[in-house]
UniProtKB/TrEMBL annotation:
This is Guanosine polyphosphate pyrophosphohydrolase. GO terms for molecular function: guanosine-3',5'-bis(diphosphate) 3'-diphosphatase activity. The lineage of its organism: Bacteria, Pseudomonadati, Pseudomonadota, Betaproteobacteria, Burkholderiales. InterPro entries: MESH1. Gene3D superfamilies: Hypothetical protein af1432 (1.10.3210.10). It comes from the Bacteria.
Length: 179
């Protein structure tokens, strides 16, 4: 089994009861969209595609489902087909992508920008794919909240300087659309 396929299967299990806000679609639709977007821009020189796609599938498992770094490590390291370097990269990538900060919204978003600004480019690329997936739904279904959301995303995109430039441009174009 490939690392990306294993990650997809694990994500489908841990998110099985989660639904998308606004549409009530299975949450795994969002994860599939992010992983699919990432697969179109993965750069072999930065990271192995299996690691990047696996991380995209798992990017919300800690934040939304309470999976711990140890739990994710244990799940992925059971399979001897994956190197410890690959497992470590996925777990670290998911940690970077998990908003676990506490405090008021402004403080949490500031801390998130600091964390993600220090992430490797391949992790930043996954975050941009996540923003692209989320933005259209929020703008369409919650225009009032979209005003706040789009400003937060503008600030976040300013620190994601190592992300894939094609996805950055798509995300910037999205947030410049009137809410």
């Amino acid at each position: 089994m490939s690392l990306a396929f294993d990650a997809m299967e694990f994500a489908r299990v841990v998110h099985k009861d989660q639904r998308r806000k606004y549409t009530n679609n299975p949450y795994t639709d969002h994860l599939a969209e992010v992983a699919g977007t990432v697969a179109t821009v993965v750069d072999w020189q930065l990271i192995h595609p299996q690691v990047m796609i696996a991380t995209a599938w798992l990017h919300d498992c800690m934040e939304d489902q309470g999976v711990t770094t140890a739990g994710l490590w244990d799940h992925l390291s059971i399979n001897s087909d994956y190197s410890m370097t690959e497992v470590e990269a996925v777990v670290r990538g998911v940690w970077f992508l998990s908003d676990l900060e506490e405090g008021n919204r402004a403080e949490r978003k500031r801390l998130s920008r600091e964390r993600l600004g220090g992430a490797p480019g391949w992790v930043q690329t996954i975050k941009v794919a996540d923003l692209i997936s989320n933005t259209s739904s929020i703008v369409q279904h919650d225009p009032k909240f979209a005003v706040t959301y789009l400003e937060e995303k503008r600030l976040l995109l300013d620190v994601l300087t190592l992300a894939d430039p094609r996805l950055l441009q798509i995300a910037r174009n999205q947030i410049q659309q009137p809410a």
